[in-house]
Write a structure and sequence with these properties.
- The protein has 431 residues and is an all-alpha fold.
- The chain is 64% helix and 0% strand.
Length: 431
């Protein structure tokens, strides 16, 4: 049996029971996680897929005229994107908050609730076609299109991960089992689209640099998740990708400007200050957010201290990924670390955005497991299911810790593989 499989506890013989009495075995329970073998993981994935599917079916079956049993419109956040599309068609001011509230409430009103629209004008070309359809047809089309794109990106990572994934389940089961998928569907959010663009773009950097750059440029519709991308691309010398990304982002911005007017950029810049105030005041809900900033605010820290903590984490992650990239070649290990670090460097990130973690988790699962890696993978996979309930009911923010642990083990992998590549290059040059 190969060492990777033996380390992972997959396909191997169980350890003798007396090993449970060894000193430090409690820590080994998490460090080695030998109990988390392929059979159990397969069963957990199928169970989660069934539970998530049943939850979605129950939500739809108990809804009345498109409103769920808790009084929320199905798709919740999607109302903002659809309203933007309708306003664009009518020549309305998308970034006028009062006008946007009125346009939303013309379709659905819920106890002074308002789904804000803080996306840059580059996102407007994606919203415009939605305005040609009714709300629910547009919601269904949005989720099918973006979900299919995200699933395509996931299957590409599954197919091209260097090592074999130790658990053989269909990609559709992985998709349905991953907790952030259900959260994204129920919110009608952009997370499938943004994660698919970043994930597929990161995968194609070496194989198809122009396509990779085009995808990464389009991901600027949610720019806070691409902060690590230029650091990695510049330091690894991926200039063709950088050029293609810049061209793609500028082209998308030009299309938005020509189609909807240059004034939207100033309006978006002005409304960004309102977004900052809304975040500071907890209007989004710190329990829904997964950043170190939100964790500190949830625990009662003053805003200044929360931002200081976020800055410390952001700079630490950026510095660590820069060191891992310095004078090294771009590779899948670095891509996985970059994507895992993306949610840590921005204060504004929510639980549905965790669909982005699928790509680093897939890569890590195909490498065989070193100490703490199984625990990091399992925690990052399941934590989004419990992060919001724990934060809302007990003020316990678990997601930042899960993200930091995952990033740490992936960064260790990236640094190690870069050193291995450097040694191999040195050996080849001497022969």
């Amino acid at each position: 049996m190969c060492n990777a499989a033996r380390q992972a506890g997959i396909g191997g013989v169980d350890k003798p029971r007396r090993a449970l009495h060894k000193p430090g075995m409690g820590l080994d329970f998490l460090r080695e996680a030998g109990w988390l073998n392929a059979g159990r993981v397969r069963g957990y994935l199928w169970l989660l897929a069934l539970l998530n599917t049943a939850t979605l079916v129950f939500l739809l079956a108990t809804a009345h005229r498109g409103v769920d049993r808790n009084g929320f419109l199905l798709g919740t956040d999607f109302l903002s994107f659809w309203t933007a599309g309708r306003m664009l068609r009518a020549g309305g001011e998308v970034y006028d908050i009062a006008a946007h509230i009125a346009a939303q409430q013309a379709y659905f009103t819920q106890d002074s609730a308002f789904t804000a629209f803080f996306y840059p004008p580059s996102f407007l070309p994606f919203c415009y076609p939605l305005g040609f359809l009714g709300y629910f047809p547009a919601l269904g089309l949005w989720l099918l299109a973006t979900g299919a794109f995200y699933l395509f990106a996931v299957t590409r990572w599954l197919r091209e991960t260097p090592g074999p994934i130790p658990v053989s389940v269909p990609a559709a089961v992985l998709f349905a089992a991953f907790p952030p998928v259900l959260i994204t569907v129920t919110h009608g959010q952009t997370a499938f689209l943004v994660a698919g663009l970043l994930g597929l773009g990161a995968l194609l950097v070496r194989r198809a640099p122009l396509a990779a750059g085009a995808l990464l440029g389009l991901a600027t519709i949610k720019p806070q998740f691409g902060l690590l991308v230029p650091i990695v691309l510049v330091l690894t010398g991926e200039w063709r990708v950088i050029g293609a990304a810049a061209a793609s982002a500028l082209l998308l911005a030009a299309i938005a400007t020509l189609a909807f007017g240059a004034g939207h950029w100033a309006e978006w810049a002005a409304i960004s200050g309102e977004a900052q105030r809304a975040m500071n005041q907890g209007a989004v809900g710190y329990a829904k957010m997964t950043s170190p900033f939100a964790a500190a605010m949830l625990l009662g820290a003053p805003a200044g201290l929360a931002y200081a903590l976020q800055a410390l984490v952001s700079l630490g992650v950026a510095g660590a990924i820069a060191l891992a990239s310095w004078r090294r070649a771009y590779g899948p290990a670095l891509a996985a670390a970059m994507l895992a670090g993306a949610p840590l460097v921005t204060p504004f990130v929510l639980d549905y955005d965790m669909v982005l973690l699928a790509f680093p988790l897939i890569w890590l699962a195909g490498q065989g497991f070193r100490p703490w890696e199984k625990a990091a993978l399992a925690l990052a996979f399941i934590a989004p299911a419990f992060a919001r309930p724990l934060a809302m009911n007990a003020a316990i923010p678990i997601m930042p810790l899960a993200l930091i642990l995952l990033f740490a083990v992936l960064l260790r992998r990236a640094a190690g593989q870069a050193n291995d590549m450097a040694e191999q290059t040195t050996r080849e040059s001497l022969t």
